User: Fold these one by one.
Assistant:
Number 1:
Amino acid sequence: MRPFDYVEPRSVDEAVALLSRGGERTRLLAGGTDLIPRLRRRQWRIDRLIGLRRIDGLRDLTLEDGVLAIGAGVTLEELAASTTVSDVCPLLAEAARLMASPQVRALATIGGNLCHASPAADLAPPLLCLNATLRAIGPSGGRDIPIGEFFTGPGRSALRDGELLVQVRVPAVEGRGVYLKFSPRRAMDLAVVGVACFRSHGVATVAVGAAAPTPLRVPASPDEAAARCSPIDDLRASAEYRREMVRVLTRRALEIVP
Amino acid sequence: MKTRLPRKRKVHLRIRVNGETHEVAFAPHKTLLEVLREDMGLTGTKHGCELGECGTCTVLIDGEPQLSCLVLGLECEGMDIITVEGLADGPQPHPLQQSFAELGAAQCGYCTPGILLASKALLDEDPNPPRDRIREALSGNLCRCTGYIKIYEAVELAARRLKDPKAEPSREILRGYEV
């Protein structure tokens, strides 16, 4: 890796100040499972990393007033193992358990998964179904971004310069959900296509991953869901195959949560 | 104000590895893997893909298996690190090391340190894991030699030995199944 400097702020305010002063070559480091390989491959030039691990509030996970408030630094392993998450949003816990390996889940964070803004981010379809809100703090204060407006393109999000995602807020809604991740390997693999479905009071919401430039809410009908996607050809699958799998997985998901 | 970044600077860190506190000086961009191997001489932890895919650089950080190639040394200040060098109790190998050696659960051996530590974390949490649980715990560790069966058998034998040091492998495991 090219040399860089490393700082560890103790508070969100301190991190925001460092970030907005830092400019383009300053990046936030959460779990590092995406960032460090990018630096290793020299895809990004970095002068300074701001480590977020020591900011206590970012690892909190609480249920308050019917909202599951998940700190952006909560790891996938914590999501998978937390009884609160399993009780209130089993869909999210299920998606976390399907990701990577124990060693990677111990590092990777929910905030990193979302801010990296991969079209295949496994936590995104469940959170789209559950109508999560993302709380960001920047130099001019905090704001809440509905997850439907968060992803703006592959690797791009609605976060502005100097803004830090601090919390993912998931309303605790009664209902049943399922996340179907289709990948050749059961561990350490990205989704060829991922489909989440959540049904509450008879109404089903469906969202897909790896089938469009961003994770996406789609109509709760197999044909319409497939029509709404705009997948690409890559080494994992052809666009045509992905579209067909969206149709199949949407049908299955709707059958699993009738 | 433009601040010049001190590129050649080394940082000092207190780090607890295998039960001993060390003070190490290294460049701030070094990963824990590089600090362990290059600055502390602990070469039991292996360089693999260095992209978080293969698992051979697995160490225990505060008891949890993590990939040392994805963690910066500086992030580990004050944390408790266990590497493969810390598994044995003096001259006495850990029951996992013993059973891996006895059952031939290592061929080239490159993945072994990571698998031993991922297995230790599993047995610390669940002393009697079913085969599925072992598979899941080792799903982030690639072994291109063994086909994993001997590894699973060795973890199972170690689990038995942790309860009963005299436990022996079954005849089938040593000699194969009769057809």
Number 2:
Amino acid sequence: MSFIIRGRVWKYGDNINTDIISPGQYMSQPVDKQAEHAMEAIDPDFAGKIQAGDIIVAGNNFGSGSSRETAQMVLKHHQIGAIVANSFARIFYRNSINVGLPVVEMVDTSVIEEGDEVEIDLLAGKVINHTKGVEYKGTKLPEHLIEMVKLGGLEPYLANKLGIS
Amino acid sequence: MGMGMTMSEKILAKASGQESVKAGDIVWVNVDIAMMHDLLGPWLVDGGFRRLGGKLFDKEKVVVVSDHCTPPATVQQADILKFTRDWSRQQDLPYYYEFEGPCHQVIVEHGHVRPGRLILGTDSHTCMAGGLGAFATGIGSTEMIGVLLTGETWLKVPETIKVVWDGKIPHGVYAKDLVLKTIKDLGHAGATYQTIEFSGSAITDLSMDERLVLSNMAVEAGAKTGLIEPDEKVVEFLRSKGVTDEIDMVSSDPDASYIRTLHYNASELEPQVACPHEVDNVHPVSAVEGKAVDQVYLGSCTNGRISDLRIAAQILKGKKISKNIRCLVVPASQHIWMQANKEGILDILTEAGCIVNMASCGACGGFTSGVIGAGEVVMSSSNRNFRGRMGSAKGEVYLGSPASVAATAIEGKIADPRKYLLKEVM
């Protein structure tokens, strides 16, 4: 996983919970089928419009609710570049880092608009809005997770730790 | 600032082999119980687990419960269930349960949950185990791969919010009402990264069944876990489940540090209802009374225990549910199902017009057995009312106590249970 991510923004509001990202009724289906229904409760066009590398920018408490990693699986299936939010729910944040889905918190995401081109620097804790020519302060990746993110997530990190190539 | 430790700090100090830790520390911990269920367990874990060697750290500490796909409603669910069963056999797991009920209740009934233990599970409501004084929290499937292989993971020691409920809980008001009021005040992200520690005389008065309601719903305020200090009721409960080992009566030190303390007087509380589509959208029942519903759901790991079914039976005895609705009863475990049957509770409920389903995660998570369609409204005793949670994203879910749910079944509209219960008292 790269520490620098650049992409086009899709905006969402507060409390985008795991039942919205990954509805329970589709969870036993293959990932590509589940991904067709990602976010559909609030945005029926999501699966159709999202492009590889796009960045989701949302408000407070992104990913609240379930521990279901199908939420990360469907977002990764759509090749989301990163998620920027005012805040994340705890389990969602942790799962994202574990599977190599970049997540960044910043104080007020309302300054970013849909369609903006933004660049995220995970190590420096910066969010650069190229459309507006403004730089925002984001959270830096916690020190003890840098190595894991560098390797691409928990599985490669464990492989390294356990000496499995 | 106190120098003592909270329950969370003590349990995580022990799990990380240290004398003491404090909130904010990052610690590597040894896991006492790794719990998986069918939908987020072996099916998702197996690939990575095999790629990394495929050897369990300690099969005695791994518990698998098939509960989300039981009974399977689709061939895909049947395949997941079979995969889970086969995997558990291949790994020669001593603790695999299926068709016994939701994992959180099953691991409590089988004595896996004990005070002072560190329990990680692939489900956000794993925090229910905190009602017995275990530090228990939800993790994802990838993180579970690491736990299965090494028995370890890293955790940030959480700060603790102390929630004190004193006073006598009024007739018709239950643990569910206490926890809904608490979540309303904290907000649905108000305890993110933190522990909620429930204490006070109203909490110690609660039965084991009711304490589990509080800890189950801690995550609905964003919390990492919800803890209640173990006492004689916990010891008695564990002994009744055949646990003979010494029990770690972990408690917070009197001079422990809390980030926040909330004080409540339970005697002033009235029944509470969480309205769509967030668990902190809580109002007194009087504010939503009369809202017409299509379905009533009495059960789940939150509120499907024997005391819940007894209360519902007390309200529904000799009455009929509204013709306009269906009322689904889902005991929190097969064990509770059988107990309710022995006590005649299932007769009372079915004579009133309820349908009794088997113990499973079923419609609570929108998986099987009673999901809702577009435009339908449910009054449920479960724990989450997000958009689409119980089926259609165009449905609505209200949450309340089993008593409020039973009263709603009679009227076909959200109802205050106290008018039905007061008659019994007079």
